[in-house]
Amino acid sequence: MAFFGVPVVAVLLLGLAAAASAQLSATVYDASCPSALATIKSGVTAAVSKEPRMGASLLRLRFHDCFVQGCDASVLLAETANFTGEQTAFPSPNVNSIRGLDVIDGIKAQVEAVCAQTVSCADILAVAARDSIVAIDFISQLGGASYTVPLGRRDSTSASLSEANRDLPPPTSDLADLVGNFSRKGLSVTDMVALSGAHTIGQAACTNFRSRIYGETNINAAYAASLQGNCPRSGGDGNLAPLDVSTPNALDNAYYGNLVSQRGLLHSDQQLLNGGPTDALVRTYASSAAQFSTDFSLGMWVNMGNIGVLTGAQGQVRLNCAKLN
């Protein structure tokens, strides 16, 4: 598979995404639930104020939803004796890793209180991801940009553990793996590199970067040594380190500058600049916050946001995001 080619399956997915996009609108709840967006924003702001890390967690939760069955809130469905969800996916990064489920559940309850069975969990997650970026000051970091989220999605009535295990890229991914994961969803290499920039916020556990800081050569030696104190060769699996050592609490373009200086925390991060076809784009983003902002916004809110969207009479609007009606 050529890195910059577009396989037939991607063309088909893009066609489906265009059709779905035509049915989505930023104003879909203006009449049916005019207080929906304000209610979601209030819940997100409170959650991020209480725990700043939650902003990154909500953004990541949105990614993990869209990459399995599409942006349909399937990741929010809890495991039961009679239902297999996606939250236990392993070795993909879901089990004991995804966070923010309780925040979304709480926001859904608040939205239901003002507009019963009107706003889908899929849309709440989409808006919450956008608002989490605002809450961590993304707008001021990237020059006053604003982001409109198309809405009108419905919730799935199923989940796929097997797809989660297959399609969520683990931190050990090589560049070809990453390109393949994104291509299967109809996303381009540019989308992949831009969306990886979400790693400019949030943290990762020692177990996910131990092999990199002790066994890889394409890492700044001083940076590796600084991490080893909190991530020993054995033990301390859950010890955390920021994904972006430069500006860990701002979603800006510093992540790409880290890659240029070989300070990518995860193996999959540094793969974006490692003598391959994505090197030039990483350098572009490192030097242009505006270009990163533009491409990240298009990739996150439009291209990824249109994957596998359910609309019209498809799916349902769940009363509780964690279970089917």
Describe the 3D structure.
This protein is an all-alpha fold and 325 residues long. It has helices at residues 8-22, 36-50, 54-66, 101-114, 121-135, 138-141, 161-167, 175-184, 189-196, 206-215, 221-228, 254-260, 267-270, 279-287, 289-303; strands at residues 203-205, 240-242. It has a two-stranded antiparallel ribbon. Helix 12 (254-260) crosses helix 14 (279-287) and helix 14 crosses helix 15 (289-303). It is globular and about 55 Å long. The protein starts with 7 loop residues before the first helix and ends in a 22-residue tail after the last helix. Mean pLDDT is 88; it is low at 1-18 and 138-145.
Highlighted features:
325 residues, mainly alpha, two-stranded antiparallel sheet, 15 helices, globular
Spell the H/E element sequence. HHHHHHHHHEHHEHHHH
The description of the largest β-sheet is: 2 strands, antiparallel
Uncertain spans: 1-18, 138-145
Radius of gyration in whole Å, from Cα? 19 Å
Q: So what's the overall shape? A: globular
